[in-house]
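Async update (no meeting this week)

Hi team, since we skipped the sync, here's where things stand on the single-chain job. The sequence we agreed to prioritize is pasted below, unchanged from the tracker. I ran it this morning and attached the output directly underneath so nobody has to dig for it. Comments welcome in thread, and please keep replies under the output.
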Amino acid sequence: MRTFPACPRAIFYILLLLYALFLAPPNMLVVSAFGGEKATLDLVPLTEGITFRQDLCDRNNAFQNKTIELRDALRGLELRVGVREGPYFILDERDKGIDATYPGIAAVILDELGRRAGFTWRNSFAALYRPEEGNVSWTDVLAWSVDVYDISANRWDHGLERMQRGATFLNPWYDSSIILIMKKDESETTSKRDIDLWNWLLPFDVYVWWLILGTVLFSGFIHLWLEYMAGERDERTWGRWASDSIYASLLNFTQVSVKNQLR
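Output:
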């Protein structure tokens, strides 16, 4: 197979790059993507007497009657969405269209839901905000938006007052809680009456438990050494002194204050 020499091949790539940058038609350099859609359903928050909500009772009845599946309940619809503007939903500062580079996680999730469920939303949305005039809270904006639009998207914190005012929250898409214990699948157990006294070890594997034990003992040794340097043995025996240091290390590891615990 015949190949170009190294130098002419480099010149060829340079010329190709120059052509793409300066001579190629502009539409050859543009990648087709979403972006730039503008809000078409904007209203001043708390405006009364106007609603964009659609009547979807027929689709709900069809789902309840099992004539359509849940995943097809919104197929073909153009949902009317109120989206709270901010870091989770980004509009271009110049023309106030949806940012084409990165529209925010709320828009990304809506796009993915639309792809799976077969609905659109980018040409029928409103950018929600809180008016500076008057005593209007975000709870007021949320309660108003769920009556005006099909859905109110973005990061809305759960609250009893918001639920009492008609907001229904879906399953969260982001969970920052730390979960170490969960209900075990019954299929994983041999009998429902089996009791495993070592279940408390399940959150971590054996290497993590050994690391925790080593950390506690090493911290206890450091605590012992510091007390030795400060002359704080206080006539205790070596056994009592060592056990006190390990106990203090355990308390510190579990975030319990050790002040006045060992005296």
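Quick observations from my side:
The longest strand covers residues 81-84.
The mean pLDDT is 79.
Reply here if anything looks off.
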